[in-house]
Amino acid sequence: MPASAPRERSSSAGLLSIGQVLARLSPEFPGLSASKLRFLEVQGIIAPTRTESGYRKFSPGDLERLRLALTLQRDNFMPHSVIREYLSDLDAGRAPAQQTSVPSIVPAPRRYRRAELLAAAGAAPQLLNDAIGTGVLTGAEMYTDQSVALLRALVALDRHGIEPRHVRALRQSAERDVALVESALSPLLRRTDAASRGRAAEAAPELAKRIEEVRAIFVRSALEKILD
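Predicted structure:
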C-alpha cells in the first residue's frame, strides 16, 4: 500500500490539479469555478485523467483545450454542443464547421477600465473607492457589465444616503445564501463522479433563484407594513 503513493505522484508528474487550473485561467476568465470545470467535463468538453485516489488531473493539452472552449463561449457565444463539435473537428484534423471569424449577432461582453467604469455608472471616484474598501465591489484592472450595474445601483442608493458600508450586509447575506445552497447540494458535491457534479451545477442556480424569490416576498411584505 505505501508504494502506491510514489507511483501516483510519478503518474501525475506534469499534470495540474483543479486549483492549479483555476489559478492559471481565472485571470482571463474571472467567472471560472471548480463546479464549472466539472460541468464542462459532464458536457464532454474536457476529459481529465484521474489519480488512483479519484482526483482530477489536467495535462497542458487539457489546459489549452479549456482555454479555447472558454474563449469560444465568451467571445462567440457558442453553446456547449457546438463547442463540442468544434473541438471534435479539430481532434479529427478537420476544419471546424463553425467559423469563429463570423461576427456574432450578440455583442461580445465589454470590459471597462476604472475611468470607463466610473463614466458608465455615473459614479464619483470616492463612491467606487468606498465600494471596494467595504468589499461590496472587488477591485480589478478591468471591470464587467455586472460591475457597472452594481455601481449604478450604489449611485442611486447613495442619493438617498445609503452608502456602500450600509449594503455590505447584503453581500454577506448573499454569501450565506451560497452556503445554504452548498449545504443542500452536499450529497452531490461529496461525490466524485462527473454526473453528480453536473447535476449540482444545474441545481445550484435554480435553488438560488428560489431563495431570491422568498427574500423578495419578505421585503414586499415588510414594505407594505411600513407604508400602510
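Summary: The two ends are 71 Å apart (CA to CA).
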